[in-house]
Amino acid sequence: MQRLAMDLRMLSRELSHYLEHQVRVGFFGSGVGFSLILGFSVAYACYYLSSIAKKPQLVTGGESFSRFLQDHCPVVTETYYPTVWCWESRGQTLLRPFITSKPLVQYRNELIKTADGGQISLDWFDNDNSKHYMDASTRPTVLLLPGLTGTSKESYILHMIHLSEELGYRYVVFNNRGVAGENLLTPRTYCCSNTEDLETVIHHVHSLYPSAPFLAAGVSMGGMLLLNYLGKIGPKTPLKAAATFSVGWNTFACSESSVNKHRHMFVKQIDVDHVMKAKSIREFDKRFTSVMFGYRTIDDYYTDASPNRRLKSVGIPVLCLNSVDDVFSPSHAIPIETAKQNPNVALVLTSYGGHIGFLEGIWPRQSTYMDRVFKQFVQAMIEHGHELSSM
């Protein structure tokens, strides 16, 4: 509430300054314009506070996880105040990449080999200047999975790292095959139903730092991949906890740009020209993704790619942030009843925020609600996660 009060005071000052110097002169030299605009502003503020700014819905499968989040990740129970001039879903979704800044993050790149002869690009932020975890062997490690065609250069990935750098953790970004500038060595890309590459990355990172707390966070398609992995492997993962953001619970799209860029690798298996003429995501997945990964039909692929059916098998604490107005993930597909049956799962559902939007403040350049949820949850699990087992 203090944050909103500051925003409204700032907005009032700017509005008053404008009205004083512009409207009073421009509107027939009278105070009529001032009164009209001031009245509209008050009405809009009342509407915003009563209908737009709301607390998220917290859905958990157990009272212990709910209490833990209220104690150590309070942002998930506080009122979310979307940007007052940009709270609608499409605006949040489309404007975020252009409004938010891109903090400077210096990565160290590593290419690792896969069992089929391919390679995966990992970008490390080692945080060697960490004052809290000077011993690299025990420094907490967070694996980040970007969305469809996303890489370590996405603004939301940069913000997640930059905002949490002060915590002293190490971050590693998993770039899907062929999207981060590296060569595609085999005729295979990626999809969120196939978790083999993610399993390879998790095993590799854990083998390097077996004594370090290990967490993961996935955004959009990266979150779908992460949930599918967790649903398949259950509690037998080295990950301590995980978080997902703007997951599509019952749909999937693969990248046509990656296919076109590396088309020479697929010509012997797939009619690339036919693939590139697809007029919808479903057509593309039917002609390419489902064929590439051996599915009999497109419906078989979509069923296997949807993480909602695996949520009940997740065996570690997972927080999932979604906006119910997300245009890519309809609210009716969010598995609320399934989440209630798994004590390891918490859904945080905001009324607004769009797809990977979650803009807040008058001019949301530096951080978003999603960034704050990420930071608080990761810190809570690393520093207080042991409390869950004793609850």
Automatic annotation (TrEMBL):
- Keyword Cytoplasm annotated: no
GO biological process assignments: medium-chain fatty acid biosynthetic process; medium-chain fatty acid catabolic process; phosphatidylcholine metabolic process
Which reactions fall under this protein's catalytic activity? 1-hexadecanoyl-2-nonadioyl-sn-glycero-3-phosphocholine + H2O = nonanedioate + 1-hexadecanoyl-sn-glycero-3-phosphocholine + H(+); a 1,2-diacyl-sn-glycero-3-phosphocholine + H2O = a 2-acyl-sn-glycero-3-phosphocholine + a fatty acid + H(+); 1,2-ditetradecanoyl-sn-glycero-3-phosphocholine + H2O = 1-tetradecanoyl-sn-glycero-3-phosphocholine + tetradecanoate + H(+); 1-octadecanoyl-2-nonanoyl-sn-glycero-3-phosphocholine + H2O = nonanoate + 1-octadecanoyl-sn-glycero-3-phosphocholine + H(+)
Kindly indicate whether the keyword Transmembrane helix belongs to this entry.
yes
Membrane-crossing ranges are 25-50
**Active site, per annotation:** S220 (charge relay system), D326 (charge relay system), H355 (charge relay system)
Documented EC number(s): 3.1.1.32, 3.1.1.4
The Gene Ontology CC terms held by the record are: membrane
Spell out the InterPro entries in the cross-references: AB_hydrolase_1 (IPR000073), AB_hydrolase_4_CS (IPR000952), AB_hydrolase_4_sf (IPR050960), AB_hydrolase_fold (IPR029058), ABHD4 (IPR012020)
Where in this chain does the record put each AB hydrolase-1 domain?
Answer: 140-241
Q: Where in the cell is it found?
A: Membrane
Q: Under which main EC class is this enzyme filed?
A: hydrolase
Query: Which keywords does this chain's UniProt record carry?
Result: Hydrolase, Lipid metabolism, Membrane, Phospholipid metabolism, Serine esterase, Signal-anchor, Transmembrane, Transmembrane helix
Source superkingdom: Eukaryota
Q: Write out the GO MF terms.
A: acetylesterase activity; monoacylglycerol lipase activity; phospholipase A1 activity; phospholipase A2 activity
Query: Could you tell me the membrane topology recorded for this protein?
Result: Single-pass type II membrane protein
User: Where is it mostly found?
Assistant: membrane
The entry assigns this protein to a family as follows:
Belongs to the AB hydrolase superfamily. AB hydrolase 4 family.
> What exactly does this protein do?
Phospholipase that may play a role in phospholipids remodeling. May selectively cleave myristate (C14)-containing phosphatidylcholines through its predominant phospholipase 1 activity, cleaving preferentially acyl groups in sn1 position. In parallel, may have a minor phospholipase 2 activity acting on acyl groups in position sn2. In addition to (C14)-containing phosphatidylcholines, may also act on other medium-chain-containing and oxidatively truncated phospholipids.
Q: What is this protein called?
A: Phospholipase ABHD3
